[in-house]
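Q: My labmate handed me this sequence with no annotations at all. I'd like to see what the chain might look like in three dimensions before we decide whether it's worth expressing. Could you predict it?
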Amino acid sequence: MVLILREIYKNLFDQLNESEIAYSVYKGLNHLKEDLNGERGDIDILLNENDIDIFDAIALNNNFFKVWKKDKPYYYMGIDKVTHKFVMLDVNTQIQFGPKPYKPYIFPIEVDKLSSRIEYDRVRVLDLVDYLPLMFIMRVTSLSEREQDLMEQQELIKVHKIENSYILKILKEKFSLDWNVVSQDILKSQTWQELKEKYLMQVVKNVNQNSQLLFN
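A: Here is what I predict for the chain of 216 residues:
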């Protein structure tokens, strides 16, 4: 599929890249092209809490408006002037994971420590060294068991060496998980259920009564 990046996204990401804030598109990278085409869902962006006001100003300057919401994440909607289609941003300042719709588990994140790369000339996305372990944490605790998500992990693990990343450090230090072991289990698994039976409790046992990941 040829990428037809919506004009509203072009302007937004150009200005984000020109600013001094750290951001990363961190989810849905296996269908990001369709999202940027405006053919699927929203764009998931992660940034530091102290940068939300700067992001607000950039978003408003590019025809987005914030959808009122009491708690994180922050949602923005916009209308592309060329196609007249609605587009949406899902902006978060912390990682939320667990069963939808509430994703009850959270842990803080320092976005500037994440590895990222520029994709499609202007969109900064989470690099695979952080993306793969992060998606493992999020999906093994969710109720979703989509086969294509497991296949994505397996295919990427086969061809990419994942080491020395911020999320891997969290995986090891906070969840006591060895990615070498985890990745081999991912490759051998036929379903997410197999992985959940082994790893779900090991992840959620690190969550305190306020549903926040314990960082001791």
